[in-house]
Amino acid sequence: MVEALKLELVSPEKLILSEDVEMAVLPGGEGDFGVMRGHSPVISTLRPGEIVIFEKNKVKSRIFVGGGFAEVNDQVCTILAEDAENVDDINRDEALKMLGVAEEEIRAAENQLVLNSATRKRDSLAARLSAVDNPAYS
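-> structure tokens emitted (138 positions)
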């Protein structure tokens, strides 16, 4: 039996998830990485993407995060994220519509600051839609 890793997902408002997991794959700033009990200590940025939680070598759940940070040690993985939602709860049509609005905001940007903000928003929304369409963990 594999020993469990405590996975905690925290937003600025509340604790979203706290459970023992076999393994989780996180969307690291430099690429996806898996964490299990016994992992070496690491702190990583997270890009917008999905956290995939495994149980008995199968996908148990998928959570989209809009970015953040992860702190991992041999027993606990703590994720600090601005926003998080269950991938199964994302409405694909609504996500596509939101992405279109963000692309319009980019086209209408009047200065570099607005353009940068709109581009970050568009990139996060594109990653959110990509999580819904990801065939790797369906």
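The helical segments are 92-108, 112-133.
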